[in-house]
Amino acid sequence: MLVGAPVIKPYLYAEELAELTPWSVEAIHKKVQRGELRTGVHYFQEGHRGRLIFKWAAIVELIEGGASDRKTADAGVPHVNGKGLDVEKATAGLYRLLDR
Known about the structure:
The chain is α+β, with helices and mostly antiparallel strands. It has helices at 14-20, 25-34, 56-63, 68-73, 87-99; strands spanning 11-13, 43-45, 52-55, 79-80, 83-84. The strands form 2 sheets. It has a 3-stranded antiparallel β-sheet. Strands 4-5 form a two-stranded antiparallel ribbon.
């Protein structure tokens, strides 16, 4: 460890994460909503409606491009809430709605 380097906790609240990254608290919450930050990987939640707790090591990996391998594997697959979308099922559902 470098002398004088800040000690970063392994888990951070959004406000603390915003101080260490180029993202604002609002941007962090938008990344969560869009599924860019995934539950169980990048963040966890205290209870059902509790505060989000972000895992620093996973955030660093995302920022430094370590997650690009996963993105490449998922390229072209639309995502909803961080989960792959079954395009055939969604298309069939759309057609059912249009036929009504």
